[in-house]
């Protein structure tokens, strides 16, 4: 079956009417009734929306982007579905200025409730069971948390909506369990291009006006906008890359295998349901490695290494097209259902395209990071090592740890080992097809798993679901991983530390990045600066173009007080805003009595960071939020 047929089929399950009606007793539920039932199952503590009363179905967004004022002004017009006794529809907002509201084209009253930390405020608009449309005119704040306005000769704007930041740039029902389609018309300066998580242009419009369509229903955290001076290059029939002119050649080379990754993914778990898979290289201030916005992955330029060595991140974001974008966690407490599945799928894509040798090295590195994170979290809050999280009254960003990603991965790897790869793959293909464009919570997944896969007492006993999903730490039956190449690196490291192997004897040039990263990240914290000087003299590590290797080197350089790398450390931190790198580097400075250096660098770098990063760094460095 081709993509068009698949998409038409799944969309037919997602279309809602606008007035509720009761079905005859024992009659099958129609699409709307099923969706209402689905939404009543899960309580999202991070959204004010009341979807069982009234929920959004389709967004028509008309907006203008003002770089001078750092403001987006717009009108969000929603088609809605209402219960027969509906009295209001509730939206999430945070920092928005609401100018007016309309119900079916008629001016309407609205009410904004009190603010809660992280959550923002509820925006309530009166409706009835017959209401078909609600429109909201509004403006964003210059410091809206989702938005980063990048200054320079060529300005750039990008959004980051996950987890609950969409409400800072669009009034919305900001819950992962509420899906809607959308159209948009966006006005930007006529020398820039606008892109969204939707159909996208490949050339600049002379008028600066761009139109978009997302025909597949998505949750609000997948709303995305970027505006900048970018160019497009086609990679394959369904893939392409956008980047600023000075990076477009490098990006085209680096991501030349995107189509191969897409074909491999489809071969594993079924047709790609989003028509195109393109990638936008964002400014280095982007706080994550990537964001899986449908049709247009946002990616950090730190994965451009010149040798295609860091494409596992592309495989990860592509895998989200199934796990997360297609089947979505119902609430942020169920985040592992997005990320654990995605890491598993990522590794299978990497194995299919690059071989088990590479994928097992990646898994081995992930296991090391997981063990370290479990140890750290167990000392603070053991409950945070559960797969099923408990994030009520907390920022959902607290759940974005290696637990959801890598403990989730190893749980799924255990399932594969328990039932065999053939049965496991059959289960996953059916899972994605059966639950396409719907939400999943942990309890329902457990029920589905018991019904469709772990359907004997012996299988259930072999897995021990409670220990994995509701238990702390890593269960005893966690799959063991082994990479002979990583083991050889560990042996050479031990010899180098003891003096049995010289720096010149290390096969640094023959190693791929995973091996180099393993060597550097496992150096003893008390390695003398003189020994790092030997490595640098031999292999020029401070000048490396691979940012994963550079990160490991800089962290060790801080702990060893290897000051020749500090200029590179400063320049790196003043430009790169990826939280994965920032947190360990600033923490290393704090832990080694170099906190003043950390705060000196941070004062210069902070304006270049997204709010997702500054929130973490402010807390880490003990700094109050600037007024």
In words, what does this structure look like?
The chain contains 20 helices and 21 strands. The chain is an alpha+beta fold and 627 residues long. The longest helix has 25 residues, at 356-380. The N and C termini lie far apart (57 Å). The model is unreliable at 1-27 and 35-41 (pLDDT under 50).
Distance between the termini: 57 Å
Strand content: 15-25%
Q: Describe the main β-sheet briefly.
A: 7 strands, mixed
The backbone outline, from C-alpha atoms, is globular
User: How much is the average pLDDT?
Assistant: 92
Radius of gyration: 25 Å
Strand order of the largest sheet: 5-4-8-2-1-11-13
| Number of E-state strands | 21
Number of helical stretches of at least 4 residues:
20
- Classification by helices and strands: alpha+beta
Portion of residues within helices: 25-40%
Low-confidence stretches: 1-27, 35-41
Descriptive labels:
627 residues; alpha+beta; disordered N terminus
Secondary-structure blueprint:
Blueprint: H1 3-12, H2 31-41, E1 54-66, E2 71-82, E3 88-93, E4 97-103, E5 106-108, E6 111-112, E7 121-126, E8 133-139, E9 147-150, E10 156-159, E11 179-187, E12 193-196, E13 209-219, E14 225-228, E15 231-236, E16 239-243, H3 245-254, H4 258-269, E17 277-281, E18 290-291, E19 296-299, H5 312-319, E20 327-329, H6 336-354, H7 356-380, H8 402-419, H9 421-434, E21 438-440, H10 442-452, H11 457-463, H12 465-469, H13 484-498, H14 513-521, H15 529-539, H16 547-560, H17 566-575, H18 579-591, H19 595-605, H20 611-620
Parallel strand pairs: 1-11, 16-17, 17-19, 20-21
Antiparallel strand pairs: 1-2, 2-8, 3-7, 4-5, 4-8, 6-7, 9-10, 10-14, 11-13, 12-14, 15-16, 18-19
Helix pairs in contact: 4-5, 4-6, 5-6, 6-7, 6-8, 7-8, 8-9, 13-14, 14-16, 16-18, 17-19, 18-19, 18-20
